[in-house]
Q: What sequence folds into this?
């Protein structure tokens, strides 16, 4: 029987979120737009400033998935404060630890994120950006009805190779 649970992050989860982000950058360096080395050097103050909006629901939310008491998966939502973009929710930091992959955890988190944001009648669309290398993630987003609506060519440079970034969107 699955003992997978999902909950939103709060202030006490700051170390969990920081560790998950650093792990994500370490295990999947092509997947995100920042380098691990850029984030490891940051001060505690920087981390608090960056993470508090996620943990206080200040136009940002983070969802954690736990297998038992171990954090396995996460996903973030960003909401724009500009009137003209108040109908858009962006998905960020979608990540499952390697040892927990293929168990449907990300699917469950994304389902929860979509349901949660859709409770707000203002929200009419979801958007995200995904590196072209992340085929598992792209397939997963397509399963939720995300469409590939644009390509930013050579948007990321990792070492000496370039990676395209796809813009994916889902209307609700
Ligand atoms: C992309 C990523 C988040 C997917 O996480 P995940 O938790 O493994 O995803 P899921 O398990 O929900 O779905 C993945 C697969 O497991 C399958 N699955 C779903 N439920 C399952 C279950 N109960 N048992 C086995 N497999 C299952 C899904 O159908 C899917 O299969 P597919 O490969 O045929 O599409 C993960 O691979 C990851 O963290 N990648 C690196 C970071 C990344 O690319 N992030 C995206 C940034 S935009």
A:
């Amino acid at each position: 029987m699955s003992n997978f649970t999902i909950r939103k992050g709060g202030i006490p989860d700051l170390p969990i979120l920081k560790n998950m982000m650093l792990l994500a950058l370490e295990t999947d360096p092509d997947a995100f737009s920042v380098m691990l080395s850029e984030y490891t050097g940051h001060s505690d103050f920087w981390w608090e400033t960056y993470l508090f909006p996620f943990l206080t629901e200040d136009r940002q939310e983070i969802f954690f998935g736990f297998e038992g008491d171990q954090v396995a998966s996460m996903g973030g939502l960003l909401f724009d404060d500009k009137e003209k973009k108040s109908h858009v929710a962006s998905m960020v930091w979608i990540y499952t630890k390697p040892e927990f992959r293929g168990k449907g955890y990300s699917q469950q988190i994304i389902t929860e994120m979509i349901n949660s944001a859709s409770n707000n009648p203002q929200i009419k669309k979801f958007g995200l950006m995904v590196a072209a290398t992340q085929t598992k993630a792209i397939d997963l987003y397509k399963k939720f009805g995300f469409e590939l609506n644009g390509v930013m060519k050579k948007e990321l440079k990792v070492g000496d190779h370039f990676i395209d970034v796809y813009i994916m969107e889902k209307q609700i």
Summary: The mean pLDDT is 96. The longest helix spans residues 14-27.
